[in-house]
Amino acid sequence: MTDHSGVFSGVDLQCWMNNRAHRTEEMDRERLLVRRGQPFSLVLQCSGAPPQPPRHRIALVLHLGKRCKVVVKVSDSQAGGRSQWWFSQQRAQSELLLTVHSPADAHVGLYSMTVVLLSPDGQLQEKTPVGQFYLLFNPWCKSDPVYLPDEEQLREYILNENGVLYQGSWDHIRTLPWNFGQFEKGVVDICFEILDNSPAALKNPETDQANRNDPVYVSRTMTAMVNSNDDRGVVSGRWDGEYSDGVSPTRWTGSVPILHRWSEGGAQSVRYGQCWVFSGVVCTVLRCLGIPTRCITNYSSAHDTDANLAIDCWFNEDLENVSTGRRDTVWNYHCWVESWMDREDLPKGYDGWQVLDPTPQERSDGVYCCGPCPVRAIKEGEVGMKYDATFVFSEVNADLTNWIVHPDGQHSRVSVNQKTIGRNISTKSIYGEQREDITDHYKYPEGSQKEREVYQKAGRRVAQLNGAGQQLELSIRHAQAVYGTDFDVIVEVQNTGDKDTPARLTISSNAVTYNSLHLGECQRKSASLTVPAQKALKEVLRLRYDHYGSCVSEHHLIRVTALLLADNHHDIILQEVNIPLSMPQLVVKVLGDAIVFRKVTAHITFTNPLPVSLRRGVFTVEGAGLTRAKEILAPGDISPGQEVMVKITFRPTRPGPRKLLVDFDADRLRDVKGVATVIVRKK
Fold it and tell me: Considering the domain 151-457, what is its CATH architecture?
């Protein structure tokens, strides 16, 4: 309630009622947050009888923005049509009820409202500021370009603060609970602060403000601003394992601490993030602004640096990478988001889910951003469609070609794989915690005639490998790989011919990051062998923790590459497998009932699985509606096999089903996660 002097003595913005009707009550109940294309109301208290025609006329004026004050005059009738702000009024004894209608294409942002009292001849008699409100996109409004007609999808892609991201590898998928926290205190302010810090807003605020009615513009701006490569963006990316001047990407369990740290630091980028962090943060921001958004993981994701729709990997006979300059890579997985919107800037048929990728990989129009690109354009090979369709198409549908460069400089193409890239494309189901596979949204079945036609339509000749006459086959298997233990990798050479065949086998194991950065060789083995006709030989490489433990990355990933060179140089075969090492999990137990604003205690238990002691252990805990991020130090060094338990107390701030997310990091072990579901009841 705000008090004023003059005709109007106070105003009630009816925040609780309006916010509930606009599905923003979880964001705030003290401030007004509404969605465009949907009316909201306010009550003006009058010092006497409410003013009425013909003696007085009421007008409403809005001011949008901080740097650039855009003035919006609100009509007192709907005569201006669908694209005009207008209001209606009802009088009571000493109150005036105003119902304000915003157009479905109104500009999102922070508005200030002023009620103006005019004389019959239009002379200003009184101006009364009546407060501020945030206007957001409205996916419940049929006329809004972000309209999504499925209530279950809206509950997930706008209202759900608890997410699941997917990591690991295509054949060993790992889940990562993530706290989006789009309704946490202050997040909506930070979202608009990010927009205000974009280069476009700083350089030309009027033009930027004029484009903020368009979800294509806003979402593309956000993909550029979530990474810090060109601007005052939110997160700095780093992949080399050196995070001593910041936070390891694997320690984050949600977006909210990152957003608060960026804002409180004066728009200084937060160190550090990798693809799932970028996607989690941009999902939070876009859901908060009202654009339906979901996180996507693409396994065996191609990074095509030269836009030729093919990934070329070059090795010498010792399995060392010999490419020069920027090279194509295949990431074990890569995360981006999809947002739902109409594409009025494209031909018909490309509305719906759009790929947006905030991870800084390649420049788009000179800026590190990617999208929005229609998923349908990717499936149909329409690589000329904006934005960045060629790059996204390669991520899910490039062909992988391996080459061997011989000592004399000659090179041999040893494999062309049309089925490796773009596997098990995943998102969280709207029906629970399970994974939904959406690969068929991006591509026709691998190897099908239609898939190859689309590939050719995209502008790439389908490569073929002449394998006729080869009689050797190569395969790699491995036992269950648990981090901290020794395990075997078995390489089998099969001779399908009718002659014994001499060959040389080289096996190399390397610690790699999920995006194919080699951090060091673990072990290697070479052998000269003669493979008997119609028989198989096996070579075993024992991978020991003593060797891989010192060089494996925080992604706990080992890549094994095997090269078979027959003496006749006719059979040259290269195979690779990525081996994700299984990790322990934290046990998180919440004691007793959880009630809003009452103290709750949780116990977190961890057992050291490694044959070495762990030092400098720290637990990080957070949960939307439960607690802001907190750190708890482990009680000293943790010996091999030792169990430790720490306690945390917190006071839930909002009712409903909540997730308490915990991360544990130490000097020799990172990225150990735990989660507990907490049902919070009202008082």
Answer: Alpha-Beta Complex (3.90)
